[in-house]
Design goal:
It comes from Nonomuraea typhae. Residues 6-161 form the S-Me-THD N-terminal domain. Residues 166-349 form the S-Me-THD-like C-terminal domain. InterPro entries: S-Me-THD-like_C, S-Me-THD_C_sf, S-Me-THD_N, S-Me-THD_N_sf. The structure is a single chain. This protein folds into 2 domains: 2-205, CV3147-like domain (CV3147-like fold, 3-Layer(aba) Sandwich), CATH 3.40.1610; 217-352, CV3147-like, CATH 2.40.390.10. It is globular and about 60 Å long. It contains 12 helices and 18 strands. The strands form 4 sheets. Strands 16-15-14-13-12-18-17 form a 7-stranded antiparallel β-sheet. The protein has helices spanning 8-18, 26-40, 66-69, 78-90, 105-117, 138-141, 166-179, 193-196, 204-214, 221-229, 329-335, 349-352; strands at residues 2-3, 43-46, 56-64, 96-99, 121-122, 124-125, 149-152, 158-161, 183-188, 191-192, 201-202, 232-247, 250-259, 267-273, 275-281, 284-288, 292-297, 314-320. The protein is of the alpha+beta class.
Length: 353
């Protein structure tokens, strides 16, 4: 398959939904993708099975606070600088680009990065959604060493980090990101295809396209999206309070939705760290990370990112199951409630909602 300019809107819509509020505003990533495709042509979408065992897979993602990346857009030279550093270290160039997280702009922008590098895009990612921290990827859960991180920023800096493990990769990369203004381009878990097999979540670009296309020309976009995701509807209502602040390279805060119509009298609170982490109603958990929680416009079913939440918006909150990898012991240790400081035990959304 070739990702062309006409595919970008559906991909952006799907990535916004899978971003659970984070991953960056898809509009900037979509603009970059369309511009790069016009300049360099469509991007081949390849499966892991299509690559030779020794082909280097280059996972790329923006790191930082979505509120910053919305205003400080990545430069066009950042992927080239990262790719050159990869070739210097490994002695050969990367063979394919992979998005580290399929959610948000980080799922769309790799189309632009792949186009500029003249490389195919791998139909896979490391999350199946978006997560805020560097170690929260399937490669870490699979036990692969996180011993190399390469970062570049809009000022032209290139930083190579040799962390001792995944947790240190987060600490070190976050410090560099904050020094770069809380927004940078990052490559980590650069690995040959043979190691990627079984360590990445495959088919997620195709999945994002399907999610994005589900609402095209639908008579009831919200119902079409809910059916495509097999999602639970937690509440439909109006945003009545939004608290958000940027600190330490993250956006943190909460949003309150008061129910309308059939949900009148109910109130749902979302707590967030870049992404929506937990949905609470009267102190009771309705859905919790690592399951996906997304806020969408009630009329259009377009996802609303955390930086786009505004008082008075009419929204619906949907929740659905995460990839099974995140429900393993190691997956929950890495990105379950306790990883974000919650005392709540993890209960699958299909049991809670």
């Amino acid at each position: 398959m070739l990702i062309n300019e006409e595919d970008v809107p559906a991909l952006a819509r799907g990535c916004a939904v899978l971003g659970t509020g984070g991953g960056g505003d898809v509009r900037t990533g979509a603009l970059a993708a369309r511009r790069a495709i016009r300049a360099h042509g469509g991007v081949p979408l390849v499966r892991l099975a299509d690559l030779p065992d020794d082909a280097l897979v280059l996972p790329l993602s923006g790191i930082g606070a979505p509120t910053v990346s919305h205003e400080m857009i990545h430069g066009e030279d950042e992927p080239e600088r990262v790719a050159k550093e990869v070739e210097r270290i490994f002695g050969r160039p990367p063979a394919a680009v992979m998005t580290s997280e399929i959610g948000g702009s980080n799922g769309v922008a790799p189309v632009a990065w792949a186009a500029r590098l003249g490389l195919p895009l791998l139909d896979a990612d490391g999350m199946g959604r978006a997560f805020p921290e560097v170690q929260m990827v399937s490669m870490y859960v699979a036990g692969l060493p996180a011993d190399l991180v390469i970062m570049s920023d809009v000022a032209g800096n290139v930083v190579t980090i040799r962390p001792v493990d995944g947790l240190w990769s987060e600490r070190m990369a976050r410090a560099v990101c904050v020094a770069s203004g809380s927004s940078a381009l990052m490559a980590d878990y650069i690995l040959p295809a043979v190691q990627a097999r079984g360590a990445v979540i495959e088919g997620t670009v195709t999945r994002a396209l399907a999610v994005g296309r589900a609402t095209e020309r639908a008579a009831d976009p919200l119902r079409a999206l809910q059916d495509e995701l097999a999602a639970r509807r937690l509440i439909t209502g109006k945003l009545t309070d939004v608290e958000r602040h940027t600190t330490g390279g993250f956006v943190r805060g909460a949003a309150v939705i008061e129910g309308t119509g059939a949900d009148r009298g109910r109130t749902l609170t979302l707590e967030l760290q870049n992404e929506n982490l937990v949905a609470l109603e009267d102190g009771r958990v309705r859905a919790i990370v690592p399951d996906l929680i997304t806020v969408v416009d009630t009329e259009t079913a377009n996802a609303v990112q955390t930086e786009g939440l505004r008082y008075g918006q009419r929204v619906t909150v949907l929740a659905w199951p995460c990839d099974p990898l995140w429900r393993t012991r190691k997956g929950l240790e890495t990105a379950g409630p306790a990883a974000f400081g919650y005392d709540f035990p993890y209960v699958p959304v299909e049991e809670l909602a």
